[in-house]
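Entry 14. Two folds queued back to back today. First construct below, sequence then C-alpha cells.
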Amino acid sequence: MGNRKFSVIIAEDEKLIAKNIANSITRLNPNYEIVHVASNGQEAYESTQKMLPDVVFSDIKMPVMDGLTLISKINDTLPKVRTVIISGYDDFNLMRCALQQRAIDYLLKPVNYDELEKLLQRIEHELLAERKILLGRTTDSEDLVESINIYIKHNYNSFIDFSEIADRFGFTQAYLTKVFKKYMEVTPARYLKEYRISVAKKLLMSSNLSIKEIADQVGFEDPFHFSKSFKDVVGESPNQYRKQK
C-alpha cells in the first residue's frame, strides 16, 4: 500500500465529539487520514462529492441534513463510499433504517474503542481487496478468491462482470470460476445470486419496501428476474416468504 492512506470525512455537529472521533480513528489505525470534519449533513455531503473519501462517519442527528438523509444521498451518488452511523440512540428502527441505506455499521456513543478498531480493520481489508481487483496484482488462488468474495459483498447491488474481473487478473473466466468453486464450492455467479437473495430476505422481513424496490436494491435488473432467482434459491416466491412476518 506504500504511503497511501484511507481518507475519512466526519459529520458531527458537536466539535468536541468530532475531535474525539477523529483522534480515535487515527490513533487506532494510522492508515486512516481525516480529510474533513463537517458540522452538518449538507456540508458533509458537499465535501464528500468534492473529496471522494473512502469512508464517511456520520452522527445521526444533525442540523440542515440528518445522518440518514446524508448516507442515503451518498449511496445514490457515490455507492462505493462506505458510510458508518455513530449515534447516541440505541434504537432498533434507526439502526434498521441506517442499514437499509447501506451503512456498513451503526456505532453507539460513546464509541467502544475495540469495536471501532475492528471496524477500521475490516474496512481496510475490504478496500485493499477491492484495489487488488482493480489493479489485478494477486496471483495466489486463495487470496484471489477472498478478494472476489469481499468485492461481491460490497458491490452486489450493482452490475458485476466476472469476465472483466478475470481479465484484470490476467486469467480466463473459466479459470477464475474453477478456482473460486474449489474454495467456495459454488461458482462466482451462484455465490453472487445467493448473497443477493440473503440480503433480499432480510429486507423482506424488516421493511415495507416493494418487491420492485428490493429487487433494485440487491442488484437485479427487474422484479421478474428477482422473483425467479429468489424462488430458485429459497424455494418460494418473495411474497410467500414475506407472509411469514
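Second construct, same run, same settings:
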Amino acid sequence: MAAARMVPAADRPAAMRVAGFDIQALVSGDQAQCFEAFYTSGANGTGPTPHCHPWDETFFVIKGPVVFGVGDQEHPIEAGTLLHVPGGERHWWRFEVEGEFLSFTSGKQAAAMYRDLATVPTDAPKTDYRAVALRHGQEARPEG
C-alpha cells in the first residue's frame, strides 16, 4: 500500500514542457491506487489538439479563463470551476491568458504519456506528438 503523500509547492517535481505548456505530476500512478494528479500552467494560446483517451479527466481551474472544448461545445472556464470529462469523450483545452489548473485522471496512464510527450521538441510537427500519444492509448479526434 502506498504511503500518504504531501507535495509542498517548493517540492513539486520539475515541470515537463509539452507543446508549449508545463505540467507537473503531483501524484503518479506508482504513488496512488487508481488516479494521478497534475498541475498544469501555460501561456496564452497553448494547449493540446482535440483528442480522447480511455481514462477520465477532471480539471479544476486555478487561474483563467481556460477554454475547454468537450464534444462539439466550447466553454470558457473561470477560476474556481471544475470540469469532468469521462473517458472516451472528445476534448481539448487552450489557455486564453497565462493560466493554471489541477487535473486528475483515472488509472495510471497519463503520467507516463506526459513524460514521453515531454521528449518531443516544442517545435516538432503535431504528428510527432500524436505518434507518442497514440502509443499511450490516446486518439486524435479532429472536429466532425
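Quick look at the second one. Residues 2 and 22 are 26 Å apart (CA to CA). The longest helix spans residues 126-135.
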